[in-house]
Structure prediction request, 287 residues.
Amino acid sequence: MTQHFIVIGNPIAHSKSPEIHEQFAVQAGIDISYQRQYCPDDTASFIAVVEAFFNGGGVGANVTVPFKQVAYDCCAARGGLSAHAKTAGAVNTLSINQAMLQQGASITEALYGDNTDGQGLINHINSLGWPLTGARVALIGAGGAARGVILPLIESGIGTLTIANRTVSKASNLVDELSTASETIGKHSIKTCATSELTGQFDIIINATSIGLSGDTLPLSEMLNCHYAYDMMYGRPLPFLQHFAARDAQTSEGYGMLIGQAALSFERWTGYQIDVATATETLRQNK
Prediction:
């Protein structure tokens, strides 16, 4: 029996999720259909798409820009949320609580939202062999991408975390909000500073901004160094990685994070644990 999945977004034509999940299905030996689903950018349309998909027998849905917050709000108001989704304030993976459905709940009441983005990053960093336990980590950016990885980073056992952002108050407000939302984060002392004032030696520096897509560069200090540099963006030359490669740091773009978060979604839906390294190699060869 074919299992049906979608990714909901606007725009959506560029999404690589269908190819990724189809490769997972080959590895798992199951039959799936995974489609891109365009949705008008409003809450009512999003809810209508979700209801129609799951009422039609859909198994799972991924959510991408600009609907991760909408999906979160929908699950918070009507359904359920994982701890990672609650902390991130965003949902990228939707499924249905079948037990609730069987008890007479509606689709939206049985909707369950998760966020696999942050754990996808951690899994990719681990696969690269970069040490996280006790690591001195700097995270650049205080938007949605940064928000989703702070709890998984702390859970991975890092030593210290510094969040740098162009506007320091945004970084400080993010730390305050997440410290209230998560006891795990609240127990961790997180420093904040302006991006241009981030200095010193770090084990890992992660760029969670999208500045590299425009070709612009971050205002990085000459006194900033690291052993490993990770950019969540992918698919083009990234000035952030070029900067640290010139300083002899090991670097990685975020394509592996994309595959890692998708693998976790796939596992949530189907129960199959994906060999991410093998899938990544195959997908790179097919690009």
